[in-house]
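Contributing: when you submit paired examples, paste them exactly as shown. First protein:
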Amino acid sequence: MGKFFNQQAAIGSGKHRQLLVALAVSLLAPANLFAGSASAQSLAPEVKLPTIPAINEYANPKAPANNPIANEPELVLSAKLAENGENIGRGLVWRVFSPEPDPDGKLQLLATSKGGTTSFNLAPGSYLVHVAFGRAGATKRITMTRAKRNETMILDAGGVKLNAVLSGGGRIPQDQLRFSIYEDHEDATGERALIIPDVKPESVVRLNAGTYQIVSNYGTANAVIRADIRVEAGKITEANVEHRAAQLTMKLVRENGGEALADTAWSVLTTSGDIVRESVGAFASIVLAEGEYIIIAKNKDKIYQRDFKVVAGRNQDVEVLATGGASAASTANQPVGGDEPLD
């Protein structure tokens, strides 16, 4: 193999060696390749490049010439929960409106901002400024001149944190607990206006100072508690209500401790015959306020029932025995606990 390599090297020692030498010279002295004569230089006409302005001469959105609003006087806005409180640093929504309604009767929205303290550049004139912090808010008419103006808006607002427990201090699963907040006074129809529905427990709701009615629902049946609360400016009011209720899991069985029968229709009634809840399934789970009830289970063409008393804070499994049931057809026109037919 070594002898073969030497022969190949010898073959390339003629013209090939000359080419390699020429290539080496060109790499070592590249200037020689581009050096032309005077006549060669005259073939390339002189090109005059256009003048390119400096990049900082292009439109700057912050430059006064390109932002006419920036030439208008500045209105700096901040907000407090109470007169002696600190400025709110975040969570505010600012809106600036024209004070005169348009042909549709609506105020024209001119500018908005979110966060804490903010500023707007506004032409001299009158404006309505509204600030919202959660469900709390305030509106003020502000007149701008050619001078810069600082304005602090007092929301006169606080917050409320809601929760509930079972009688005796038992814990309620948060996914089964919800609150609604209503105005404290009734309207002409005797109803209270709903302000905020489906408030989660332990969440802080921002409200203007005043009295409100809260409604706490444990489950989706009749475990409902109402209470009035007072919200004070600059403070968080914690309200805990107590539910006197329990959760029941009902099943229809052929014997005590037996398997639940599928395709069972359930009805829970008060002792006066008012329906509290209806459902279908082998297992029916329901939260009921303490008291006495009638549980009715219908399976195929048979109806079974049981009287039951709910004790506050005592969650239980309730079995209804599928024995001695009445025919659904024979009881269709009969009241729950009487012998006289229904009209």
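Second protein:
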Amino acid sequence: MSDLSTCAAAESPRSLADPRVLIPLALFALFVIWGSTYLGIHFALESYPPFLLAGVRFLCAGVVMYGFLRLRGMAAPTLPQWRNAAFTGLLLLGMGNGLVCFAEERVSSGIAAVSVASMPLFAALFSGMYGQWPNRRETIGLAIGFAGVIVLNLGSSLSGSPVGAVALLVAAACWAFGSVWSRGRDMPPGPMNTAAQMLCASVALLLVGYASGEHLPAHPTLHATLALAYLAVFGSIIAFSAYLYVLKHARPALATSYAYVNPPVAVLFGVLLAGEHVGPYDLAGMAIILVGVVAITLAKQKR
């Protein structure tokens, strides 16, 4: 009987809790959902100012998620976990996502995604601060990737908006440093990490928004409000949870691989749904950046 039970268990479908099942599903969410959030930000900015948009998005998602987890009996984060979540959330969501929203007032959603594709390049550099300096192949990938960033900034989209270009590069650097810094830290367990980071980041974003003179719209369009709801539910709760899951259960190179899938996805959504234009410098810069990121990823796998 025990042999039959063992065989039946071996033949049964894999559990949904199996990382071999969850990691591909999480990556699919990162590739498609996060690729579409750049266009979602573009639509939401029709009514909402950038920092308050990001603040409201993460506040709503964080409150819902934190309340749900507490009702399910999950323990609240400890004080050190709140501190670590606050610092990581400030880097990833506050400065990373907040500056993307700020930049998208000046550049197209597709170009914003292409610029953020430089994130793994910064991550490779920041890893050196913790003793993981790039090897020769990774250094070549870094050089290729940053050459792509230069080409991208020569294009009309970013060259006409230096403030937007700087904001996007700072956003990518902050996201990369936050991802590297959080590894091995005492973070809240599982999805509570997502909720804590969103709550902490929302406070910072709302403070920056109101301090800079932003105001919530009195009569936002339905289009913009639906985009905000999409960003909160799919972009924040689902996709960000997926990112933290992959970051914990897979190689960092795999966790950051979304960075070279999101740009073509975002460009495709922007062209098809928003009529955005992509120039030759933009395409060339995207191609070079992606070559550099792929080179770094392959070099990390070999190492």
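If you have annotations for the second protein, write them as plain sentences, like these:
Residues 222-249 form the longest helix (28 residues).
Confidence is low (pLDDT under 50) at residues 4-13.
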